[in-house]
Amino acid sequence: MAFRDHVQNLTARIGTIQILVFILLAGLGVRLYYLQIVRGDYFAERAENQRVRLIPIPAPRGAILDRNGKLLVDSRPTYNVVLSHEPLKQINVNDRVDDYSRGLHIDRQFVVERLNLIKKQNDFESMVLKENVDMGDISWVESHSLEFPELRVELQPQRFYPLGTTLAHVLGYVGEISPKQLEEDEYKEKGFRPGDIIGKGGLEQYYDQYLRGHDGYRKVLVDSRGRVQAELEVIPPQSGQDLVTTIDLDLQEEAERQLANSATKRGTVIVMDPNNGELFAMASAPSFDPNVFVRGSTTPEGRKQIAAYWQDELRPLYNRAIQGRYPPGSTFKIPMSVGALQDKAITVAHSNVLCGGGITVGNKFTRCMGSHGSPPLDYAITKSCDGYYYHLGLKWGIEGMIKMIGTFEFDKRTGIDLPNEKIPQTPKTWMPWIVKHEGSWKDIRTVYASVGQDTVVMTPISMLRAIAAVGMRGKEFTPHFLKEFRPIGAVGQEGDIAYIPPRPGFAYQHPEARLIEMEPAQWDLVLKGMWGVVNNGGTAGSIKMAGWEIAGKTGTAQVASLGMDKGKNKDHAWFDSFAPWNKPEIAVLSLIENSGFGAANSAPVAKGIYMEYLRKHPHDGVTVPETEVAKK
Amino acid sequence: MAAILEKRRELRDLDWQTATIAILIASFGVWQIYNAAPTEGFWSKQIIGVGIALAAFIAVCMTDYRRIIDAAPVFYAIGLVLLLLVLTPLGAQSHGQKAWLRLPLIGQFQPSEFVKIPTVLMLAKYFGAKKGNVLTFKEMLIGGAIWGGPVLLILLEPDVGQVITYVPILAAVFFLSGIKVRYVVLAVVAAAVMVPTAWYVGVKTGKIKRYQQERILAITNPEEVDPRGYGYHTIQSTITVGKGGLLGLEGETETSQSVLKFLPEPHSDFIFAVTAENTGFIGCVSLLLAYAVLMSRMIAGARQSTDRAGMLVIMSVVCAMAFQIFMNVGMALGTLPVIGVPLPMMSAGVSAILTTFVAIGFVVSVKLRRFVN
Question: Whole-prediction pTM value?
Answer without folding.
Answer: 0.72
